[in-house]
Amino acid sequence: MSELDRLLEGAIALDKWPLARLVRLFEDPRPAAVPEKAAAIAGLEARGAAPRAMVAGYTGTPGSGKSTLVGQLAARLISRDPAATVAVLAIDPSSHRSGGSILGDRTRVHFPIGERRLYFRSQASDRELGGMGRATYPVVRLLERLFAYVFVETVGIGQSEVEIERLADRVYLVLQPLGGDQVQFMKAGIMEVPHAFILNKSDVGAAARRSYHALRASIDFARPGEASPPPIFRTSALSGDGLDDVLEDLIAHRSTHDAEARRARDCYFFEKWVRDEYGRFGLDLLEQQGGADALLAASGSFEAAQAAYRAPVAPPAP
Fold first, then answer.
1. Cα 36 from chain centroid?
2. In this structure, how many other beta carbons lie within 10 angstroms of the beta carbon of residue 63?
């Protein structure tokens, strides 16, 4: 049995060390890693590990308690459902000066030691805008073949960083009391993205009630004409209040990308990869090759399409 086969078998069994090795492989941006990524995806699918996870996105302002909330939701989910498995991918901001990242979200998430059904991974944003890192999508492609749920916690966002909408099946916007008045809520472009809102730290009394009513009013203005306005959940990640309501919503709306939606998602992130790697020249070359959709269809997989795309733009061998 090859080393890759051993890693795949261990990852399917949700052993932490093989999982970490495979995640590191999918975070590797070097062209030399592409064939091994393609072999890993092919090996997983040959073993019946097709994409099956619901991807839930948790985004929101810094300090709203996203990390503690996500950790509590994951732990509660596996407690109520013995068949549930959850991977948490937490994105931390990278410094625009040093390029480093603290990766501090792990300190707020406490999973039981030895619990295979829970997996946590911190990831640097690599100075990307949009709330996620360059390696987020490749790692999600791996994790969605191994777990029933993948929770993606984005960087604490601003008003226009909404890329999680392209990745997740259901998006939750996490806010906190006193985070702004009605006008401030309405200014945020992110208000148009989430399927549901979570007003965390709602155990602060009158301030939480005022924020709830301001948020409800701003949703009515920011998203007019919706037959069913998105729900607002009032929670406290510390006391546990309201967390079961969020889980009920998550389970009630459990869905995964169908083939058409997954293809659209692949196209978006393939074009993003081309733009990040090669800029406008790369996008023009991609159009000459028929576009992302055609290249992905002809290649058969995301990684194979990357290899096929790189061939015309790779520098000649010395």
1. 23
2. 11
pLDDT at 206: 84
d(CA 254, CA 235): 20
Question: For residue 64, how many C-alpha atoms fall within 13 Å in the half-sphere facing its CB?
Answer: 29
Q: Who contacts 308 (Cβ-Cβ below 8 Å, separation ≥6)? A: 295, 298, 299
Q: What is the mean pLDDT of each run of 10 residues along the chain (318 residues)?
A: 93 96 94 92 93 91 86 94 94 52 53 86 67 87 96 72 84 81 51 88 85 83 78 93 96 83 92 91 91 92 89 60
Residue 46's contacts (CB-CB under 8 Å, 6 or more residues apart) are none
Q: Which residues of 137-165 are buried (b: 16+ CB within 10 A; e: fewer)?
A: bbbbbbbbbbbbbbbbbbbbbeeebbbbb
Beta-bridge mates of residue 88: 120, 151
Residue 118: partners with Cβ closer than 8 Å, 6 or more residues away:
74, 75, 78, 85, 86, 87, 88, 111, 112
| CATH architecture of the region 54-252 | 3-Layer(aba) Sandwich (3.40)
How big is the chain, counted in residues? Answer: 318
Question: What is the overall mean pLDDT for the chain?
Answer: 84
Provide the 10 A C-beta neighbour count for residue 225: 4
> What is the pTM assigned to this prediction?
0.89
Residue linked to tokens 């998602």 = 265
Separation in Å, CA 69 to CA 201, 246, 280: 10, 10, 39
**What is the pLDDT at residue 98?**
42
The candidate with the shortest Cα–Cα distance to 144, out of 74, 252, 45, 243, is 45
CA atoms of 99 and 110, how far apart (whole Å): 27
Contact yes or no for 196/170 (Cβ under 8 A): yes
Of 25, 44, 45, 46, the residue nearest 36 (C-alpha): 25
- Tokens found for residue 81: 């459902």
User: What is the tens place of the pLDDT at every residue in 271-297?
Assistant: 999 998 899 999 999 999 899 999 999
End-to-end Cα separation, the chain, in angstroms: 35
